[in-house]
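Before the break, one more example. Copy the sequence into your notebook; we will annotate it together after we see the structure.
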Amino acid sequence: MTTVDALHRSILADPDNDTLRLAYADALDERGRGDDAARAELIRVQIRAEKLTRVPVSPRCGSVSDRWCPACGDSTCRDPERGLSDPGCPLHDEDSPHAGTADRILSLHGTAARLIAAHPEWSWLKCPSCGGDGRRPPEAARRLGPDCGTCYGTGDLFVIRRPGDGTKVTSRNPVFRRGFIESVECRLDEVWQEREVAVASMDNAFSWIIGPTSWARALIEAVPTLTRFVITDREPARGSDGTAEWYKDRGRNLGGYFLPGVLFDALTGRAIVASVSQSTGDPVGVLKAHPTPAAARDDLAVAVCDVVRKAVAA
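Here is what the structure looks like once it is written out:
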């Protein structure tokens, strides 16, 4: 096993350890293959940007600057009486070691964006079902159509031609964090399926499938650093107390804020029985509440990835 491979495994085992990621970047530089140097630079740039983003920039509020005001880079760095930028913020003082932090953050994030854009192969992974050519084998193509059922004919795990949309191609928007892909956007039916499908080897034969799609399985295997499937076509309901709520789909496929049972059960939100059957006493409406919509969406993104990963490992 090479040093690069060993460090990569160590990163997967300890994903919060930036020292391992920086050592991996050094190993890539030493190997010097293809785009190794550019990828190493991406890792370093994103780690530096994230560390700068965590710098407390206001002596008055001591907050973390991940949202920037135009003057000093801190959305909460305000005069509490007048609502203006805090004149005591060290970023306003040219002699302060923190001066220009916001500009450096923006510059580093811009550099990272350019590095990613310049090397699309980092977010371009060949579809394992078709080997990257987008086509089904001849026998399956005669029964199910020519386009691969995993990538829908693009040969790419991150670019998809939607079924029924003809030539329309869209990106699933992978998100890099600290040099590695951490999340990807998709619809729920792209990652999870509960439906009848045709059996390729038999005429007029169908089977009922419940579980991850072939694309989701392929992505988990190809991108071991993935932690989130960000679901774009589901939105939590708002509770009367301001909470954000996911409901358990009991086989009616209502969409919206209803989720398949397996995914719902994996959520960490506070479980609530909204109503029970008058005849049997069984739960009818079951929901899980979160303090904010953002917390509800992130819980779903993590839960979907966990469920898919467990299914792939089984």
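The first strand starts at residue 159 and ends at 161. The two ends are 26 Å apart (CA to CA). Try to locate both features in your own notes.
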